[in-house]
């Protein structure tokens, strides 16, 4: 098996707006993601991050280029890709456990007992022991996002596609979930494709940060983050962390000035 998991080559995407100007969102975007990588994408609002993630998820079409997973064209959503959005997208009428077991139902490969055991494993992983029978409305935002993460992991995807999953959370909860995600990745090494507009978050989590520019969305630079794992909030105090952070900030900020001049 090749080490390369996702191959994106010269992808172009234009939204056709009825009665308005077409929006060129992605232009010649090429990116390769290897097994076990933690890739973060940063870039200004509207640069096409969500569009790119949705294309990889198989939820969005594109005009030209190549998007492949393990050498196969991506033509729609599939259980090999776990998707987590900023809004939790849980089923309000299902308990925490039922929400987590939901995706496994469609894999048709687990008995009820196995599903129970797998959901148990991920309930522990996201620190929701004791909340198995709670409904989403009884949970905080951070807890709901933990359920969404557990649900995505429970189907053992080859890659986690996360679109600003912590964007709606307060700073404290966000820091906690970053740590939990790091622990999970350090243990399971499931490839992550993680979108954020927070440069700190990107450098803390990623083994590789992809910087996108806007109008049209293009890949500006790819920065390999050579900070050792395990990482935690204290990693942010590391000199090298700040070198990466300042370098990426510089590029992002210059683009911002460019767009808003
Ligand atoms: N369905 C759509 N129709 C027309 N334009 C869209 C549509 N979805 C997104 N866009 C535009 O495409 C650009 C990129 O959007 P998006 O991928 O959501 O960016 P980001 O996630 O980086 O903020 C934005 O200018 C947005 O307004
Ligand atoms: Mg977005």
Could you please describe the fold and organization of this structure?
The protein is α/β, with parallel strands linked by helices and 261 residues long. The protein has a domain at 1-80 and 158-166 and 190-261: Rossmann fold, CATH 3.40.50. It has helices at residues 49-57, 96-105, 112-125, 141-154, 171-188, 199-205, 239-259, and strands at 4-15, 23-34, 38-42, 64-69, 72-73, 81-84, 159-163, 191-195, 208-213, 218-224. Strand 1 (4-15) and strand 2 form a beta hairpin. Helix 2 packs across helix 3, helix 2 (96-105) packs parallel to helix 4 (141-154) and helix 3 crosses helix 4 (141-154). The termini are far apart. The mean pLDDT is 94. Magnesium ion (MG) binds next to helix 1.
List keywords for this structure.
261 residues; alpha/beta; six-stranded mixed β-sheet; binds adenosine-5'-diphosphate; binds magnesium ion
Give the SSE layout.
Blueprint: E1 4-15, E2 23-34, E3 38-42, H1 49-57, E4 64-69, E5 72-73, E6 81-84, H2 96-105, H3 112-125, H4 141-154, E7 159-163, H5 171-188, E8 191-195, H6 199-205, E9 208-213, E10 218-224, H7 239-259
Helix pairs in contact: 2-3, 2-4, 3-4, 6-7
Bound molecules: adenosine-5'-diphosphate (ADP) and magnesium ion.
Residues 49-50 line the site of magnesium ion.
